[in-house]
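In this supplementary section we document a worked example of the pipeline. Step one takes a protein sequence of length 279 as its only input; no multiple sequence alignment statistics are reported here. Step two produces a three-dimensional model, which step three serialises into C-alpha cells for compact storage. The input and output of this example are shown verbatim.
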Amino acid sequence: MGYIDKAIEAFSKALQVSPQQFWSNVGLGTSYLMKGEFEKAETQFKKLLDQGENWQAIGEEWLVMLNLYQGKFDEAIDHIEKGILINQRIGNKSGEAWMHIMLAEILKKKDDQNLPLKALKNAVQVWPSSSTKMKLGGEYARLNKFNEALELLDQLEVLKTEEQTQNNLANYYRLRGEIDFYKQDYTNATHNLETSNSLYDDFETRVLLAKIYNRSGQYEKAKKEYEYILEHQYATLFDALPTMWPLAHYWLAKIDELDGNRDDAIEYYQKFLKLWKDA
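The serialised model returned by step three reads:
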C-alpha cells in the first residue's frame, strides 16, 4: 500500500470516529486529489461548505485548488468569487489576497492585460506584504512595464532593510531576477533567482530558472528543476500555484522532445493529458 492509500485509510477511519473533525475531510480530499480521484476529492471539500463561514472559506480554497489542478479555470473562478466574499465577511485578509492571486493567474491567459494587474493590485491592497508586492512587480515586468516593476522593487528594498527576514530578502531578489529575466538579461536573472532560492526555496522561482536553462540548451539542469517539482507533489499544493505539478509533466515533455527523447516525451504528455482531460 502506497503512502497516499495509507493516508486515505487513516483519514477515513478518523472520520468514522469523529465525523465533525473537518480537517480530516481536508486531508481525505487532498489525498484523493493527489491520487487523481477528483470526484471523491470534490465530495470531501464540498462537505465544508455546509459548515460555518470559516470552514466555508477553507472549502472554497480547496475547491479552487482542485479545479486549477485539473485546468478547469472557469469552475475555479466561480469558487474564487465566492471565496473572496466569504473571506471579506470573516476578515481573513491573507485568504482574500490568495484568492485574488489565483484569479490573476487565470486572467493572465486572457487578452486584456489589465485584468491580472487589477487582481494583483487588489491582493496588495488587502495584504500589502513583500510576497504580494513581488507578484505585482513580476506581472509588471512580464508586461514590460519596467518603471512600475522598479517602483515595487524599491518598496521591497525598504522592506528587506526594515525587516530582514529571509522571506523579505528572497522576495526582493526574486523580483530583481524577474525584471532581469523579462529584460532578457539572463546572466543577472540567474544570479538573482538563485540567490532568492537559496534564501527561500520556491517552486515558482525554480520554474523561472528552468526556463533560463532551457533557453540556453542546458536541458539537464532545466529537467532537474521540473523533476524536483514532481518529487514534491504535496508541497506544491500549499507553496506554489496548484497548476504547477500537472504542468511540470508538460514542461518535461517539451524538453525531452527538444532533446530527442521521444519515448520519455510521450510518457510525460500522456500523464499531463490524463490530469487535464477535462480542462
